[in-house]
Every structure is written in structure tokens, then in C-alpha cells.
Structure prediction request, 507 residues.
Amino acid sequence: MIEVIKISKSFGANKVLDDVSATFETGKVNLIIGASGQGKSVLAKCIVGLHEVDEGQILYDGQDFCQMDHNERREIRKEIGMLFQGAALFDSMTVEQNIMFPLTMFTKMTRKEMLDRTNFCLERVNLSGRNKLFPAECSGGMQKRIAIARAIAMNPKYLFCDEPNSGLDPQTSILIDALIKEITYEYNITTIVITHDMNSVIEIGDNINFIYKGKNWWQGNNKSIVTTENQEVGDFVYASDFMKQIRSKLA
Amino acid sequence: MKLYINLAVTVKIIGNIGKYCIMLWIVFSKPEKFRIFRKRTFEEIQTIGINSLPIVALMSVFIGGVIALQTASNMDNPILPDYTIGYITRSSTILELSPTIISLILAGKVGSNVASEIGTMRITEQIDALEIMGVNSLTYLVLPKIVAAVIFFPILIVFSMTLGLVGGWLSLIISNLSTTETYVLGIRYYFKTGDIVYALTKTVVFGFLIVSISSFYGYYSKGGSLDVGRSSTEAVVSSSIAILLANFLLTQMILL
Prediction:
């Protein structure tokens, strides 16, 4: 479980996060949603330590990440898998080398064991046999799936996904969402997904945190979000004409 | 207003120097796994060093040739012996042209390559991915490049010195301005091993400066592809200035 307690973060005079608290539960897909520029990516980057918070605590299973030194943080980070918005695969490495990379760096596995693990991860994301391709030879959806395979290679306790569906067609987005959900339940991972894709919100949002003006404005799940009376959440969820029509039908 | 701009520029330069020193402090941390570090170093020797051999060879032959021809064309004084051409070509090549000019050329080739490679990794979040995995990205990416440059640049410069002298010989023979015996006599005349030590010491420092400064600009790139291009240009300009300054300081310290 990851707990964020009263964190604040400013860039110069711009206060991006203001006293944000949230709990991300284990074995659930936890979403951070909100419009662009509201601070959701900054929140995620603070949680993984890519940004230092100005105030507050970030607890990984009760351990305060903000108080840890560099080496202690590295130990926690070895338990984190992250899927970046642009996949962030290493260009110079093949698919196989990308997935093997964390295993090579941090385990004492033999080459055969690493290869078995890589093949297992590739199979898990339905990309068996694509070992020797380079990232540039893969489509956007494939790159995202390879990044998921790399993220789960080390059996992480925490999985972060930064806008996993951006730039993907609706069908591939559904596949990626389903994969994230399956992996979370199967391996009992604490998964945090940053998204503004409403389809993902409805499909996989076990626990949803709506970030608005740098604050955790609303918390709920994929059922309560469609019926909430909260004005700002309602504006976000029913932003399109199509969703507005659905709301009027629901009403 | 002007004073304010000058002050802002000075503060920025001092800030960058501080940031560069902190970067170096982190770069020289213990690598995660020595086996991977060794493999990465050999890969960088290939990219930074061996791939630079053709341009170094081409430049060295022509520079050596031109130096020999210019010296020969200015040898009007009958007091000066014929072997002076070889002597001057050797001294110019070993002391300055190979270590400094070739390093400046490498600052362009290797510097822009290093800055754009690391800069692209930064803007495509590959460096963030390394950090999230718990990898010290600076040690993983930059240290093998620095070690490769420090090891291989002296080899490149010895290669350049040799080819420069060969270029000088070729140009003199083709132009019929001297004989092989006279040229070789000039090359061997009053030869000091210290000159080679001086040149190679300079080269090691230049190699370190080129790669570390270029890595610095690449690593702290922000924005998009345009900014990576800008970082690459700044890397080449800054490493060239650093080479010229270091050349002056090292010459003061070693030769005088």
C-alpha cells in the first residue's frame, strides 16, 4: 500500500500540489485522474521520487520514502515497475534486452533463467517471439506492452502507469487496460494509473482520485464517479456531448 | 540593464559549473555491476574511438602535408638546414596539431554525438526509466564514455601523429621538395620523449573534458528535439572553449 500524506510541491511561485493526501491500496487499480495541468503527473513523479516534495510524507508499506537516503530509495525503486507515457524503451536494445535489463542489473540469474523470465513476460503481454525486434520496429501498442513486460520482469510490488492509453486506438487501449487489471489482480500489486481517458476510468478504476487545482478534490470508484454530485468531477466526466447525452438518459 | 544581464550570465555560468561538479561526483560512484560496466566501456570505445579513426586519419594526413609544404615554401634562408622541414613538421604535429586540433575536431564529432544521445534519452524519459529501476543513470551512461575517451583518445592521437608525419613526408616527396633521408633526419633531430608525454597528458585531459561536458549538456536537456539540438551545439562550443583554456594552462604547467 502507498500512502500520500499532506504533500505539497511548488515550482517557483507556482504551487502545483497543495496538501494532497491519498491512499493507494494493494491488489487494486488506483487511478489518478484530472484535466491536463492539474498536477496528476507531478503527484506521480513525487511518489516515485523523480520530484522532491516540499512538505508531507509518502509511505511505501509504512516506510517514509521522503526520509530515505539515496541507497534506501534505490532498494524501494527496485520494487517499482513503471510504464511511461511514451513507453521509454531503450532504443539501442532489442525487445529481449529491454526486458532483461533490470534482471541483468539487479539479479544473479543465469542467462537461461533471464531468457525464460523474458519469454514468460512477453507471453504475458501476448508478444511471444518478438524478442529480436528493436523498439523502432514496433507499433505504439506493442511498445506499451513491451514496457509493461519490462515493468513486471522483476515481480514489482508497485506498478505505475503514466497515461498508458495516450496515442493508442480504442481497441488497443482496451487491451492495455485489461492487461493492467489482470496483472494487478494476479500478482496482488499496488497499481497507480494516471489517466484522463474516461473509458479506462470506467473499466479499471477500483479506487479513483480526482486531482483538481493541485488538490485531491474527490475520491471514489468507477461506480460512484458516474453518479457523483460533485460539480468539477461531473464537468470532467461528462465533458463530451456524447457523455452529456448519456447523463441525460441516466437522469 | 547591461550590468544586470552580465550578472545574470555570470550567475548562470557559476551555477552550471557547480552543477557540473556535482554531476562528476555522482558519475564516479561505484558501478552497479563491473561486468556490465566493462561491456559498456568496450561499446563506447567502439562508438567514441574506433568510429573516429577515419576522420582522424583524413585530417591528420592533410594537416601534416600542409605543414610540411608551408614550412618548405618558407625555407628561403640558406643558413637553415634542409632537415628543418622535418623538424618543424614533427614539432608542430606532436606538440599542437595532433593533440589540440584533432581534439577540437573530436569535440565536434564525439561531443555532439554524446550530447544528442543522452539528450534524446532524457526527453524520451529513458533516463527516468533507469532511475525508477534503481539504476544510477549517470554512472551507467556517462562513466563508460569518460573511461573510453580517456583510454582511447591517446591512442587516436598517437595514430594522428604518425599519420601527420606520413602526410608531411608524402607531400614533400610528391612535390619533390625534400628527400626521405633529410625528412627522417629532421623528424629524429633533437627528439624529446617529454614532448610525447606532454601531448598525451593534454589528450587525456581533453578527452575527459569533451565527454564530461557533452554528457552534462545532454543529461540536463529539457523540452523537445529542438532543445536537444541546442544542447548539442552548446556542448560542442563549451568543450571547445574548455579545450583551449586547458591547453593554455597545461602548456604553462608542463612546458614552462
Notes: The mean pLDDT of chain B is 92. The longest helix of chain B spans residues 84-123. Residues 108 and 190 of chain B are 34 Å apart (CA to CA). Chain B has one domain: 2-254.
